[in-house]
Design brief:
Blueprint (H helix, E strand, L loop, with lengths): L44 H20 L3 E2 L5 E3 H7 L5 H6 L1 E4 L5 E4 L4 H10 L9 E10 L11 E10 L4 H17 L4 E7 L3 H17 L6 H9 L10 H7 L11 H16 L4 E3 L11 E9 L11 E5 L3 H4 L7 E7 H7 L17 E6 L2 H16 L3 E4 L6 H10 L4 E5 L1 H6 L1 E6 L5 E5 L3 H10 L4
Parallel strand pairs: 1-5, 7-8, 12-13, 12-14
Antiparallel strand pairs: 2-4, 3-4, 5-6, 6-11, 7-9, 9-10, 10-11, 14-15, 15-16
The structure holds histidyl-adenosine monophosphate.
């Protein structure tokens, strides 16, 4: 039987498949780039050396004066700063980065070091160590301020504190550390200094000051009208012209100091004279943090007009803070310098600090030709670096010409070249980058040869 062919359904003409249009270059989804938050700043490689150098300078001077390094966490209980710096201050009322942690506690990014250091000393019983206890640190701090020149939301301070000694020589020594640090960096510095006496002196003075300011209320700026109620002492350092005029005839805090505070202050001044620190008595200086008593001071650059507007740093005595934070009564004094402002005030063509990293470092460059040579070079580099020699190389480049060009760029004084032949016979070529003169040396003696050349001061 003939097999019937199944009737086939008519094949529909297939619509021609449309070729997917290629996304045009211009239509490609753009990936948005991200940037630093407002008031935050990257420290770029080109600034890195200067930062490292200033850090080293801070470390050297702190150690020379007998301060020991310590660190506290970036995140602290918000209460620590509310109880120390105080409500009514700009830092606590407006600038603290406070947030709720996952366990519901109120925490903040530290706006300063002083309160954290006091907390740490109470917490770890550090005051049982022989007194005075002298500590220093360096690090990032956070204040949600309106960003402007010299004012960031994340910034750095170099901070020194002395605990456990009620002697004017302590205040003078701390001022001298900051003063000499700034001078060594080439910044002509003046110290503004004042005494705000004891709590009792201040209370009497504030009554007198408020009485006077109330009679001149209409001449004060809007902020100072508020300060008159919240924190009258802050009126004293207002920069508005109207307020400055009013303050010319205001009662002066020095006239309200007890004999004890007055004598203490006079001694600090005498020590500064002996230490040859340049200072200016500034009766309107009160500082913006509540914990201070007696001596207060700030550092200004005198060789830069703009720099002289805002303080490079400040500090003072805070004999009541340990008790305020639950510790036993402990005299204390300290300072902090704002590093961004210090770097800005530094003369750009300053004489290099002795042994400075800003000075041209003795750089040795390694060039390699071939796989085996590369491995040998890596070993030699490791040896030299461990012995403290600054070494550079570029493993990605294979031609000698390209490598010598880089050696020039990084201002290497000498290049050590190893190729196949040198791998075989255990030698290396040392090339003087200025003269181009090359010598062959024993691979085992690369370190000695390099040191000989650097010591001889050939470069
Ligand atoms: P302070 O006056 O608040 O004192 O800060 C010291 C320095 O830190 C200022 O003079 C300034 O150079 C720098 N600084 C402050 N805020 C900023 C900012 N937003 N941007 C850039 N730099 C800034 C204290 O912090 C006290 N804890 C100092 C002290 C130590 N008192 C006793 N011991």
């Amino acid at each position: 039987m003939p097999i019937k062919k199944k009737a086939q359904a008519p094949v529909k003409a297939k619509a021609p498949t449309k070729a997917k249009p290629q996304a045009k270059e211009s239509e490609k989804k753009e990936v948005k780039t991200l940037e630093t938050l407002r008031g935050m700043k990257d420290i770029l490689p080109r600034e890195g050396r200067e930062w490292a150098d200033v850090y080293r300078q801070a470390m050297d001077i702190a150690h020379a004066y007998g301060f020991q390094y310590m660190e506290t966490p970036v995140v602290e209980p918000a209460q620590l700063f509310i109880r120390s710096i105080g409500r009514g201050t700009d830092v606590v009322d407006k600038e603290m980065y406070v947030f709720e942690d996952k366990d519901g506690s109120r925490v903040c990014l530290r706006p300063e070091f002083t309160a954290s250091f006091v907390r740490a000393h109470i917490q770890h019983g550090l005051l049982n160590l022989p007194q005075p206890v002298k500590v220093w640190t360096w690090g990032q701090l956070f204040r949600h301020d309106r960003p402007q020149a010299g004012r960031y939301r994340q910034f750095h301070q170099f901070d020194c504190e002395t605990f456990g000694e009620l002697d004017p020589v302590v205040d003078a020594e701390l001022i001298a550390v900051a003063y000499n640090f700034l001078r060594d960096l080439g910044i002509e510095t003046t110290v503004h200094i004042n005494s705000i006496g004891s709590l009792e002196d201040r209370q009497n003075y504030i009554m007198e000051l408020v009485g006077y300011l109330k009679t001149k209320r209409s001449y004060l700026c809007e902020d100072c009208k508020k300060r008159l109620v919240k924190n009258p002492l802050r009126v004293l350092d207002c920069k508005e012209e109207g307020c400055r005029t009013v303050l010319q005839d205001a009662p002066q805090i020095l006239d309200w100091l007890s004999t004890k505070s007055k004598n203490f202050f006079m001694s600090v001044i005498e020590y500064l004279d002996e230490l040859k620190v340049e200072y200016t008595l500034d009766s309107t200086l009160v500082r913006g943090l509540d914990y201070y008593s007696d001596t207060v001071f700030e550092f200004f650059a005198t060789n830069k007009e703009e720099g002289s507007q805002s303080a490079l740093g400040g500090g003072g005595r805070y004999d009541g803070l340990f008790e305020q934070l639950g510790g036993r009564p402990t005299p204390a004094c300290g300072f902090a310098l704002g590093i961004e402002r210090v770097l800005y005030a530094m003369p750009k063509a300053k004489p290099p600090v002795e042994g400075s990293m800003i000075e041209k470092p003795p750089r040795i460059f390694f060039a390699q030709l071939g796989d085996q040579a590369r491995r040998r070079v890596l070993l030699l580099i490791e040896e030299l670096r461990r012995k403290g020699v600054t070494v550079d190389f570029n493993i990605a480049k294979t031609s000698l010409k390209a490598q010598l060009e880089i050696a020039d760029k990084v201002q290497a004084t000498h290049t050590i070249i190893i190729g196949q032949k040198e791998v075989q016979d255990g030698t290396a070529i040392i090339r003087d980058m200025d003269s181009g003169i090359q010598e062959t040396i024993d691979q085992k003696k690369v370190y000695q040869e390099v040191m000989k050349k650097l010591k001889r001061g050939e470069k």
